Please model this.
Amino acid sequence: MTETSLRGSENVIALKLEAERLRESLISIRRQIHAHPEYGFHEHETARLVAATLDELGARVRCGVAKTGVVGELGEGTPVVAIRADM
Model:
């Protein structure tokens, strides 16, 4: 195994551990969103919740993207991973 692939494996393990650490919090957020449905382009409460959560995680947050969208950026440099989700 090369040094690069070892680092990649370590990153995957670290990511899985972090996801597990956040599991209960993410389930709670999902339940909050599903308990208060909003019409498309009127997801103001959902956007606030997503922005607040990203802010708590230390992300740079931009709100009002394409009306009610939220963008959160963590870290700097490369590589870059993008995750897109509908609200």
